[in-house]
Structure formats: structure tokens, C-alpha cells
Amino acid sequence: MTTRYLFRLLGFAGLALLGLPQAGLAEVQHITLQDAIHVAVNQNRALKIARLKVEENQQKKAGERSSYFPSLTNQSNLLHVTDLETIAIAAGGLGHVAGALIPPVGASLLQGNKNVYSSGTMLSQPLTQLIRIHQQNRIAAADVALSRDDVRKAENEIAVQVHTVYYGILIAELQKNAAQQQTEYANESLHESEEDVRKGSALKVAAIGGRADLLEGQQSILTADLQIADLKTELNNLLGLPLNTQLELDPAVPTSFDNLDKAEYIKIAWEKNPEILTAEDTVKKARAGVAVAKSAYIPDITAYARHSYQDGVPFLVHNFGTFGITLSYDVFDFGKRRANVHAQEYALAQAQENLRKLKDDVAVSIEQNYNKVERTKTMVEVARQVVALRDENDRLAGNQLTYGVAQVAERRQASAARYKSQADLLQASLGYLLARAELEQVIGRTPGL
């Protein structure tokens, strides 16, 4: 991004921070199509949500990665036993000394305490589970890649929407100018018709037709105003700006593009198209899912070392340590693991078939959009020739008006036709640009960047 774009983005970000009340007082901001796309890519709400999803999946991946390492856990218990085993010793049960019994009377000894406290801290390291953990990390990495693919896809879609709305506003403004000229022409024609009616050289029906033309022109202006207001609100929303931000659009239309062969477009698409990348990442995720399902046949073996403290259990010291290896294995599960493996294998087959289908669909889309670009480019050339003719006609009408050869209404009509031809040229240019943008979107590039 160039310094110029950076400063413009900072300016639009400042508008967004000012809030709705202040935005209404802000000056009108000039913005080009490329600037608008940069602002939308950086500030659009939907894109911000998609990027937050990437961050979320990255944190989940970090959580899965921690499973590679040993875990340190503590388990503590405080128990109350309702009854204890006793040891009964009868009188003289331990013998006698000098005729005295030991003990002199019977005794009952409790084993331990009724209140028992124990605490153990264990360090454990999974061993065979590392196979499953590795595959789960691959699944987490695939989820991160999928969310990034979604961001790229959303960026491309937003860029195409900005193209559509941006030039929709410009076209509506030219159509409004044409309607204004047509209204002025209808107004002049009405005056002339009314004058002819008063002179008796025309019927009243001519004046009625003139009033109808005037009202239709005014209706066209109101319709254009409503359309412009709606499109400007939509553009502000796409750009992440306050909805009443005043923007001045640049009518300059880019016409110079790099043309590639269809085979080159297909090659780029298979490398960068977000949907194809998503399908490829889905295949990777499904393949890892198969490996996770198969790892259920491997016993879980864990090495551990534990320090324990107890108070209240007889015949055990207060502090002692244990270490060793534990093994856990489901001997029989009535086919659950086998069914899970088959389900994951079918999911992998679906993902692989979907990838092949998407590549075919993208190839078809490139063919269609490539042909559409060529057709719309020809339409632009034709519309440009019409504009040149309408400009010359408007110039000649102006000269005729100056010399008194033509009436004002005829000059208004020529001007209206010139504005309409300009609107048609912009409409054709928009069709060409949208075709180019859709082609860029199909091959995985962000249109306008």
C-alpha cells in the first residue's frame, strides 16, 4: 500500500471514529474506486468478523498444540469415614511380666482417622496418544486455513460489491443530469406549445402532451435522487463509514488491463481461488480425520510421576512418590471404531470429489467471464463512438442556437441526449469493469487492488 493510500485510509478511519453526529458536519471527501476498495477491505464490518474468526481458530490451534507437552495436575481429597476397622487385644494378649498381664485389660485400637486428607501432584506425558494429537493439530491448522480462505473470499466479494455500487452512483448521477436536461427541454417545449395554442397555430392537445413530458422528467429526477441516496448509504455501509458520510466519487474509468490466456487464468485460479483453497484444506482436514479415527485402535500409553501426601490412612507414610506407565484400551466396542473410520473415509471421498467439481466449475466460470469481458469491451467502444457523435451534435445545436437557426428546446434536447449517451457509456464501462472484476474474483484476486 502506498503512502498516499495510507493517508487516505487514515482520513476515512478518522471519519468513522467521529460518529454519526459529527459525520454530518464533515466536509465532502473525494474518493476514487481504488481508494474505496482499500477502505472497504480494511474497515468493512463483515471482514472484521471474518478476521476475528481467524484469530479464534489460531487460539484453538494453540490449545491443540499444548497437548504435545506434559501436563501437571493436582488432585486433593478431604473425606470423612463413618466407621473404622479396629484391632481388638484381649487382656494378657501380649503376654505377662512378673505375673502382670499385658495389657491388664482388653483394648480396642482404631486403624487411622475418620477424617482423611490426601493430595497428589502428578506429571504425565502422553506417548501413543501423540499420534492422535498430531492429527488433531493438522485438523486445527486446516480450520485456520479455512477461515483465512473465507476472509479472502469475502474480500473479493466486497470488492465486487464496491465496484457495483460505486459506478451505480455515477450512472445514477448522469441519468439525473440527463433527466434534468430532458425536463428543461420539456419545459421549453411546453412554453412554445402554449404560445402556439394562444396564437391558434396549435391544438391544446400539444400543450397537454408537453405538461405530461415535464411531469415525467420531474418524476425521473426524483427517482434518480432516491436511487443515489440509497446507493450512497450502501457504499458507506460497505466502507464501514457512518451512513451519512458525504463522498465525492471520481468518474474516471480504468481501461488498461493485463490480458492473459485462458490457460493462464485457470492455472492462477487453481493456485489462488479461495473456494478451491477451501476445498483443498477440507481434504486435508478430512484426511487427518481418518487418521484420528484409526488411532482409536492404538492403546493409550501414558508415562507419569506422582508425589502424594496423606493424613489418616494407616500403614502409609505421610509423603511418598510413585511413577510408572498406564495403559488404557477398549477391547470391544461393538463396531463403533470401525464405523467411525468408514464415516471419516466417506467424508474424505466427498471432499476430494468436491475439489474436482470446484475445479471444473471454476474452469467454466473463467470461460464465461473471459468471453463476457471481450463482449463488454466491444460494447464500450461502440458507446464511446455514440458519445463522440452526441458531443458533436450538441456542439452544432449550440451553434445553431447562437445564430438563431434552432430553438432553445432543441438545444436542451441535444444536451439531454449527450448526457444520456455519457450515462450509457458509463453503464457499458461498468459492465466491462464488473466482468473484469468477476474474472479477477474467479481466479482468486481482489478486484481493484
Describe what this molecule looks like in 3D.
The chain is of the alpha+beta class and 449 residues long. It has one domain: Up-down Bundle (Outer membrane efflux proteins (OEP)). It contains nine helices and ten strands. It has helices at residues 3-23, 33-43, 45-65, 129-199, 204-239, 262-272, 274-294, 336-402, 408-443, and strands spanning 29-31, 71-80, 86-89, 96-97, 100-101, 107-110, 115-126, 247-249, 300-311, 319-328. The strands form four sheets. A four-stranded antiparallel β-sheet has the order 2-7-9-10, with no helix packed on it. Strand 4 (96-97) and strand 5 form a beta hairpin. Helix 4 (129-199) runs antiparallel to helix 9 (408-443). The longest helix has 71 residues, at 129-199. It is elongated. 28% of the residues are buried. Residues 15-25 have low confidence and may be disordered.
Concise synopsis of the structure shown:
With 449 residues, this protein is an alpha+beta fold.
Task: Give the SSE string.
Answer: HEHHEEEEEEHHEHHEEHH
Rg result: 41 Å
Fraction of residues in helix: 55-70%
| Number of DSSP helical runs | 9
Query: Quick one: biggest sheet?
Result: 4 strands, antiparallel
Query: CATH H level: which superfamily?
Result: Outer membrane efflux proteins (OEP)
The total beta strand count reads 10
Strand content: 5-15%
CATH topology: Outer membrane efflux proteins (OEP)
**CATH class (first level) name:** Mainly Alpha
**CATH architecture field:** Up-down Bundle
Strand numbers in spatial order across the main sheet: 2-7-9-10
**Number of folding domains?**
1
**Helix and strand composition category:** alpha+beta
Low-pLDDT segments, ≥5 res: 15-25
How does the overall form come out from the CA principal axes?
Answer: elongated
Mean pLDDT: 84
End-to-end Cα distance, whole Å, is 9 Å
